[in-house]
Amino acid sequence: MTDAKPKRHLAAILAADVEGYSKLMGEDEEGTLAAMTAHHKDLIGPCIAEHRGRLVKTTGDGLLVEFASVVDAVRCAVAIQEGMRPRNAEMPEDKQILFRIGINLGDVIAQDDDVFGDGVNVAARLEGLADPGGVCISRAARDQVRDKFDYPLQDLGEVEVKNISRPVWVFKVLLDGSPPAAISRPSRKLPWRVSAAIVIIGLLFGGGLLWWHQAGSTDPSDAILALSDKPSIAVLPFDNLSADAEQEYFSDGVTEDIITDLSKISGLFVIAPNSAFTYKGQAANVRQVAADLGVRYVLQGSVRRTNEKIRITTQLIDAVSEEHLWAERYDRDVTDVFAVQSEVARQVARALSVTLKANENERLYQKYTTNIDAYDVFLQARRTVDVPSRDNILRGEKLFEQVIELDPNFAGGYAGLAFNLSVQVRFQYTDTPSTHLSRALEFARKAIELDMDFAWGHIALGGVYVANGDAEAAVDAVHQALILEPNGYEANLFMGFYLQFAGDAASAVDYLLIAKRLSPVETYRDVSFLALAQFMNRNYEEVVRLWTKTSIKPRGQARIFLAATYSLLDRPEEAAALVEQYLETNPDFNLTEWRYLETWKSEENRTRLYEAAKAAGVPEFPREN
């Protein structure tokens, strides 16, 4: 019996056609065919071969090519267009053959040497948007080629295209090398569509966009969460059935690591721990949980730890039918906890008919450490620094150091310590920032050296780069975490956080909204990161709305950012009140010694924040004693 399930894979698709082909054929059929044949033989075919592409098919005036690498696809397109210039220069204008090329990175279905699906359709639509002799690429493709080739890109914003249900974010390759022109970005708001009070959300991971549709409101937090087009799942906190109540952190760690393992599977949509953990200790109604978090499936379980033994039970439930799809009990040695977590993730994928890619399957079964004591302390350290107060950060530093002592080959200790030290620098919790940064960089690189597949190592490296004023390097670092955990809440969250420092506030907002969908229950960190990105995006009304729509209120230096926002909105009384509140507990704070300002790459952003904070009443210089 053969498996009829279509084979899917991620691919870079290049679609090309000839501008005005019908007219060319009508005027000179034989000459046009001869020219096309020569171009394919002498230029296009060799370019495809040189850049490791596979010609899927030709369609008279067009062709479809598949690449394993987006960089190869874009370089091939540029080579074709540059090669066509001298060829067309020798021809009369009415006989020139001008290709338009579109490139997309997306999921495709392979069948009989052909490829189908949205990944192909979007590439075809991009080709239609390209100028004759030009190249357009999708946002997903842009993210892969960033800083990897010499041609600048023009952000054309989002474009509604035929037969594609969502807007396509388009980038034009500037083949003449000219800098991008200033453009007016199209509105991101789509028409509201309401059907029996159902609100539709399209989560577009390929393009990095999150769209919310709701009648009468533009507030994403008020929207009803619709299901992802992928199997969507929330893992509720596993119950601690151990005799020792202090083993709560261990059962929580098992839950978080199962979520992490599931997030490595690109075919799943997985809710982040901080939203799932809002149900901790509750007798949660599965249907209500699914409705609250916008998922179809819920995984529940329990952990019992007795001396060196553990018992982990799990059950996977379809929240719509309330059917139990899969259940298992694992009685193992405590040192086998990592294998159990990976096995649970694999069984969930199997129950939901999700095929793991080869690299995902390999990463799923990778053990971070075999030292259960090191794992224990790591879980305690991770829980301690969740709220980054000065005391928690300093306690966390000691715990991560203990992890390294217990297992010098565990990347988690080094990654945690690196990130911890970089936070101390950003928040000015240390009087020796250069020493802290040097140590942080050493630890982050050590974490990656020990385990390239440990996503937090790359996020931690990004944190070090940000604290050292190199936001672009931070973006590159966290991009590796996104490859490892495409559904990772923190990978998307920190990509957004780092992008706004790098000067791409619009993209930062997109990634932060993806993180918000992965974790619908807001935390202080979610709100503060998004508010900061919206400030840099000059969306000041949205900054105020974020801080005033919920019970989450600004504290610490977030008050300075909100005060600067009020100043820019010409609301001086509210700005002054916030500054006064902050200075009550931080009387020595002043702008010239505010190291955080150095984090932003853009001088314009630094100056805008500085001047707005000064106008709000923040002292510019240290006060005289």
UniProtKB/TrEMBL annotation:
Any single Pfam family the record assigns to this protein: Guanylate_cyc
InterPro entries xrefs: A/G_cyclase, Adenylyl/Guanylyl_Cyclase_3/4, Nucleotide_cyclase, TPR-like_helical_dom_sf, TPR_rpt
Keyword tags: Membrane, TPR repeat, Transmembrane, Transmembrane helix
Ranges of the TPR repeats in the UniProt entry: 455-488
Guanylate cyclase domain segment(s): 12-127
Segments crossing the lipid bilayer: 194-212
Range of residues in the leader sequence: none
Protein name according to UniProt: Guanylate cyclase domain-containing protein
